[in-house]
Specification:
By secondary structure, the chain is mostly beta strands. 11% of the residues lie in helices and 38% in strands. α1 packs across α2.
C-alpha cells in the first residue's frame, strides 16, 4: 500500500490536543476524518508525537497508508486544505514515502519552543500564542541543562526550585485502658485455656509522622520522564491492647506487654501454663520507631507510550495524554518495611498496579502484615 507523509501546522487553542479522545475535537481526529471523506476509504493517521490541549505546531509530522496511489499531490493538497484551513489546521506538504518510513520511529529529533510574554500588558496580536507572566523573571535561574532534561514535558518546572518539602502527621483516639498492665493472659483468666480464645490481641496506630524533601535527580535518558529522590525522617507509635470478649466484660481493653499467647504447655501435675513472648525489654505496651526514610520515584514521559507498546496493535486501547505510561516507586524505612510499586496507566483516569510489601523480620508483636504482593486498580478523578 502506498504511504504518504504529511507536514502539519495547526493552532491548538480550541482542540483537546493531538490524539483522538472519546470527547472533544482533536487534531488527529479532524484530519483523519477529512482524509477519509476525501479519499473515500478508512484512513488511519499516525503522528510523530502528541501535543496537549492548547498547544500549537509549526511542522508536526504524520503518515497514512492508502490502497491506491494519489495521482496529483498538488491538487490533493489544495483539496484537503479547503476543509481544514478554516478550522485552524493546514497541511503544508505531502510526499510519498517507502513503507519503512514511520512518522514517529523515523523521527530523529523533536524541537519544542516555549514562548513567555514577560510584560505588564497582555499580548494582543500574539494572544494565546504564549504564556503571559507579569512578574519579573530571573533568567539566571533558568538553566539550559535543566530545560533539556525534563522541562520540555512540563513548563512548570521552569520556575520551581526542583525541591518539594512535605510532611504528614496523624494520630488516633481510642478508649483508655482498664485495670493493671497485663504481662501474660494468665493473669486475666487464671491460666484457663478454655477462655483463651475469648481474648483478642489488638494493635492501634497511636501516632504517625513523616517529613521529607523531594528532589529532582538530574538524569537524561530517552525512556525517563522524571526521577525523584525523597529523603526524610519517619516516626510511628503503635499501642498494643488486649480486648476481653468474655461475657460481661463489655470488650474492655487492657494494656499488654506480650504477644503470641496461644501456647499451652501441660506440666507433670496435669495443669497448664500459657506462654507468651515479650514485645520489648522495657515493659512497655507501645512500640515506637523513628528512623531514616528514603523513597525513589521513576516516571515515564507524560502522554508517551514506549516504542514497543506503540508497535503492538492489540495495545491500541491504551490512550494517555496527561499522565505517564508507567510509574515506579521504591520506599525504604530501616527497621520497618520496604514497599515497591509498579503502575501502568492505560488512560488518563485508570491505571493497573502491582505492589510488594516486605516487613522487617525483627519487628515483634505481629502488628505488621507479612510480606505481601497484590494487584490494584487505580482511578483518578477531578473534582
Amino acid at each position: 500500500m502506498p504511504r504518504y507523509q504529511l507536514l502539519i501546522e495547526y493552532v491548538g487553542t480550541h482542540f483537546r490536543g493531538w490524539q483522538i479522545q472519546k470527547k472533544g475535537s482533536t487534531i488527529q481526529g479532524l484530519i483523519q476524518e477529512e482524509l477519509t471523506k476525501l479519499l473515500k476509504e478508512k484512513i488511519i493517521l499516525n503522528g510523530s508525537g502528541r501535543t496537549d490541549t492548547g498547544v500549537h505546531a509549526i511542522e508536526q509530522s504524520g503518515h497514512f497508508d492508502i490502497k491506491n496511489e494519489i495521482i496529483d499531490l498538488t491538487k490533493f493538497l489544495k483539496s484537503i486544505n479547503h476543509f481544514l484551513n478554516d478550522k485552524g489546521v493546514a497541511i503544508k506538504k505531502i510526499r510519498k514515502r517507502s513503507n519503512k518510513f514511520h512518522s514517529r520511529f523515523s523521527a530523529k529529533q523533536r524541537i519544542y519552543k516555549y514562548i513567555i510574554f514577560n510584560q505588564i500588558s497582555a499580548p494582543v496580536i500574539e494572544k494565546k500564542r504564549g504564556w503571559h507572566v507579569r512578574k519579573s523573571l530571573d533568567l539566571d535561574l533558568i538553566e539550559t541543562d535543566k530545560l533539556g532534561l525534563y522541562a520540555r514535558g512540563n513548563i512548570e518546572n521552569l520556575f520551581s526550585t526542583n525541591t518539594d518539602f512535605h510532611g504528614l502527621i496523624g494520630f488516633s483516639f481510642y478508649p483508655s485502658s482498664k485495670g493493671d498492665v497485663i504481662k501474660t493472659p494468665g493473669e486475666l483468666i487464671n491460666n484457663d485455656s478454655t477462655e483463651l480464645s475469648l481474648l483478642e490481641n489488638v494493635n492501634i496506630l497511636d501516632s504517625y509522622a513523616l517529613f521529607g524533601a523531594t528532589v529532582q535527580v538530574p538524569i537524561a535518558a530517552s525512556f525517563i520522564g522524571r526521577l525523584t529522590a525523597t529523603p526524610g525522617i519517619h516516626y510511628i507509635k503503635v499501642a498494643h491492647r488486649l480486648k476481653d470478649n468474655r461475657s460481661g466484660a463489655e470488650e474492655d481493653l487492657y494494656e499488654r506487654l506480650y504477644y503470641d499467647q496461644n501456647f499451652v504447655v501441660q506440666d507433670s501435675a496435669g495443669g497448664s501454663e500459657i506462654l507468651s513472648k515479650l514485645l520489648n525489654d522495657n515493659d512497655e505496651s507501645f512500640t515506637s520507631l523513628s528512623s531514616f526514610y528514603l523513597r525513589f520515584d521513576l516516571l515515564g514521559k507524560i502522554g508517551e507510550k514506549p516504542n514497543l507498546v506503540e508497535r503492538v496493535s492489540f495495545l491500541d486501547f491504551i490512550n494517555i495524554s496527561r499522565v505517564p505510561f508507567y510509574e515506579i516507586s521504591l520506599q525504604f524505612i530501616p527497621g520497618f518495611n520496604t514497599i515497591s510499586k509498579l503502575n501502568f496507566n492505560i488512560s488518563d483516569e485508570i491505571g493497573i498496579s502491582l505492589t510488594s510489601l516486605s516487613s522487617d523480620s525483627k519487628l515483634k508483636g505481629n502488628w505488621m502484615p507479612d510480606s505481601k504482593l497484590w494487584f490494584g486498580l487505580n482511578y483518578r478523578a477531578n473534582f
